[in-house]
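histidine kinase
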Amino acid sequence: MRPASLRWRLMLAGGVAVLVVLALSALGLTVLFDRHAERVAVADLKARATALAAMAEPRGDAPPRLGPPPRDPLYERPFSGHYWQISLGDALARSRSLWDAALPLADDPPPPGRWRIGSADGPRGQRLLLAETSLLVGGGAQPVTMHIAVAEDRAELAAARQSFLGDLVPFLALLGGLLVATFAAQAGIGLRPLARIGARVDSLAQGLRPRIGGDLPAEVMPLAGQIDRLLDDRDRELARARHRAGDLAHGFKTPLQALLGDAAQLRDRGQAGIAAEIEAVVLTMRRHVDRELARARIQSDRGHAACHPAEVLSRLVRVLRRMPEGARLDWRLDAPAGLKARIDADDLTEALGALMENAMRHAATRVEARLHAEAGRVLVAIRDDGPGVPDTALGGLQDRGVRLDEGGDGQGIGLAITAEIVEAAGGRLRLENAGPGLRAIMALPRAG
């Protein structure tokens, strides 16, 4: 996946968003767990403190005293992390777990019936969760205040949080993976219209559809509409340019024909040198005019045209056989029906006509025309059994004005026009020596 692609950017942004959300979720859930765990621990401490309040033994008018504590293994083991401390008047009692230490309590206990929750340092540096309350014990006018303090090591809360995180992190990782996969699917669905536009652009290039069309989501319609408008403008410009070129070429043909007439009159008057120079210039200009006429005839919508090359070949062979030069030759045609090429029929007729006329002029006894499909292309091969051309001259045969047969009446633009028509249709023309003869291979995009 390319870093510059929209999919990659969306996936990167989604992945970062998922990580941030999951991290914040883990932090929030941990804070909530800590608060819940502390509330549970405080509730347990309050229940133990209430149980310890039963140690107070009222004695009528005498001051109350502390009775034996309830037995609890948590408070029997020294430094177990669970401690209590009770004061009743001048009497003081502590859990066995405190050993010879005492809880660091404030001098003033909380009001009777109220609770004070906080933290304190316990024996051996333990950090304790401390719950304190006070009660009034005894009858008479002077009840005695009973101060109860119960503590628990916060390390147990930290261990519970660590265990909670151990269970939470794998769950969040799985949830993150599912969210990223869901986001990837969502991005794929959201970007699917762009992929449809890409497919339709490919169809435009292959000539399978004239325009992108309007059956797309509203968000991508401005892009599709702009592309279609650009294509409309291009076709109009091509049509205007083709018409201007055709008008210009036709406008030159009449003056050029008049110049040839003047050259003939000069030759009749004995001025053959001047006549030959004029005719040479006129023929050069005619080559350019004919070339522009041929270029103007190439269809501007050639990307959407299609024809059957077998029909074009068959029609050309019938015409060429009736010509004096063609009647002496053996024409061999191997063109299976059904193959369809993406090129206008008139353009293909002109291009193949130039190739087959060239083969007819140079053939000794035979001209072959073969048609077959290969890798999404339609290949048309025209071969004669003539002398061929030097290998060093093959590369320049498609250049304008190149003529190897100076004695003929050709203008040296047939192969150039053919190559231009083939390239305009998205194909390629290749010339090679066939030993004997010359083979011209026309590769055209296959239609349908």
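thats it. The longest strand covers residues 127-137. The helical segments are 6-52, 154-206, 221-268, 272-297, 309-321, 324-327, 345-362, 414-424. bye
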